[in-house]
Design brief:
four-stranded mixed beta sheet, 5 helices, 16% strand, globular, single chain, alpha+beta
């Protein structure tokens, strides 16, 4: 009986390790992805709404950071050039592969409809995370 109990403990511990390692792998992959919103010095209502909706949509992806970048600030010039962002725009970016997905058109088209914005954002994010 004692032997069975020890074996069961070892088995349970190994199962936990496998399950938690899989979770860590997923978190590591997700943390290489980030969402970046570029904006001008003077932000319009739509630009502010896109930020708000992107932050809401990102609640589904708690490990993915959101960055707000002022495209008019000279210190951000290199990053703006990299993304070809010269005003309001929204991107998914993989820091490891350097892959960029431009969500600007989707964001502006759906900024007035929270459900549609979040659904489209999530569809794009799920595809981007798998690529």
């Amino acid at each position: 009986k004692m032997k069975k109990s020890i074996l069961l403990s070892i088995f349970a511990t190994l199962m936990l390790l496998f399950v938690s390692n899989d979770g860590n792998a997923q978190a590591k992959k997700a943390s290489t992805v980030q969402v970046i919103q570029f904006h001008s010095e003077h932000r319009c209502m739509t630009c502010n709404k896109i930020e708000e909706l992107a932050r809401v949509a990102l609640k589904k992806y708690p490990t993915i950071p959101f960055s707000l970048v002022n495209a008019d600030d000279k210190k951000n010039e290199k990053q703006c050039t990299q993304f070809q962002a010269y005003g309001s725009s929204l991107f998914l970016y993989n820091t490891k592969t350097k892959k960029i997905k431009n969500l600007t058109e989707m964001a502006f088209m759906n900024a007035g409809d929270q459900d549609k914005f979040i659904n489209e954002f999530n569809k794009n994010m799920d595809v981007f995370l798998k690529s």
